[in-house]
Amino acid sequence: MLLWPVHQLAGMVMIMASWISHWPGAQLLTGRPEAWVVALLVLGLLPWLLGAERCCRRWSLLPMATALLVHGLVQLGDDLVAVERFGYHWLLARHRGRAALVSTHGDARSCQMAQRLVAVHGHARLHWAMILDPLATDVLPCWQELAHRVEASQQGRAPIAIGQVLRSTGLAVLRLQHPSGALLLRVGRQRWQLFPSPQSLLTLQEQQRSEPLQVITGTWLGLKPSASQRP
After folding, report:
1. Of 21, 149, 195, 227, which is most buried with the most CB atoms under 10 A?
2. Which of 91, 99, 89 is nearest to 24 (CA)?
């Protein structure tokens, strides 16, 4: 009589163990949840902290479960976070708990900002980082501590060659067949065009005049276009 329920519970444990093993480092980092998610969680905890009646405590499980579910979906979902500060640009791509970064600058200030950006969104380490700028020798350890693989511009050459792909599970960046340095970023099923330089911006304006060849989710500019560069 006990064999069937024990078998079912063991199967559930195996499924959970297999699911967790596919997380990066078998960890799910929480990052910094939204204020309304925290408020919802606190609202659910209040009846337990105040010693309310059992009926009230049962109903408080609903907002707590909602807060945990929403935040879990955000952490494990596909997302693209663009940050601009002091003329520097960062693009954080997130896919099911994994993350990668594209940065227009590679100095110490840029690396420190990238570290804060990664920590805020709950990632221990990036799968890869692409730096569209040469790296100084003393700054390289900072980026290597941040990401498992670091690709940067060298002697005027782009981080990756035309047609080359920088890839990890669910995250990939491809340099397009344009001398301007335009890139195509894949985040799960999403496709993003990256135009990090004024030359690549001209390529974007030329594409806007013609019919796009593929479905594109969105476009990221690694610069602030001037009045003359805006269409």
Report:
1. 195
2. 99
